[in-house]
Amino acid sequence: MFNKFLGVCLIIIIGLAACRKDKDVFIPTELPSNIDSTIIVPSVGDISKLYDALAVKPVTLTATLGTTNCIYTPKGTQICFDENDFVLPDGTTATGDIEFHIIEILNRAEMIMSNKPTYSNGKLLGSGGEFHISVTQNGQELTLKQGAQLSLIYYSIESPFIPNYLLFYGTETPNGDVNWDSVSTNQVNIFEPFTTQNGTIIFGYELETDSIGWINCDYFYPLGLENLTDIKTYVPKEHNDQNTALFIAFKNLNAVAGMYNFVAESPADYNYFTAGVSYLAPIGEEVTLVGISEIGEDEWVSAFKDITIQNGQTDTLSFSPTTLEAFEQQLNDLFVP
Question: How far apart (Å, rounded) are the C-alpha atoms in residues 210 and 155?
Answer without folding.
Answer: 21
